[in-house]
Amino acid sequence: MPNPFHLAMPVHDLTAARRFYGELLGCSEGRSSERWVDFNFFGHQFVCHLNPELGEGGAGLHRNPVDGHGVPVPHFGVVLEMDQWEALAERLRAQGVKFEIEPYVRFEGEPGEQATMFFLDPSGNALEFKAFRDIEGQLFAR
Prior knowledge:
Blueprint: E1 6-11, H1 14-24, E2 28-32, E3 36-41, E4 44-50, E5 62-66, E6 69-73, E7 75-81, H2 82-94, E8 99-106, E9 114-120, E10 126-132, H3 135-138
């Protein structure tokens, strides 16, 4: 097993986080308390820590121009196989998720060509899910 990352992020509401990460994204829940909850985020340990002062929508994001889009920063996510990415994009659309950047192929025909999409969790944390036709050959292509 490759080294899984550990990421802890603030959320304004653990119930909303459970719905979003558990039900919508399909991440199984691990340990929890009244102030935090662990999720298996595609094989990685992701922890939502309650910060009720955060408020719905979070603290706001910076946007960086990439390929003609304003990429929200900070953001996190995972690299999926193309069929997984396509299925997730379809599921998110069916659930009415509002995309910050709609699913599309970025850097088409260039090294690092990738499918990508951005959306926010209920606390305003930005997520990016991406996919490559050849992850090993394209992930760090120059």
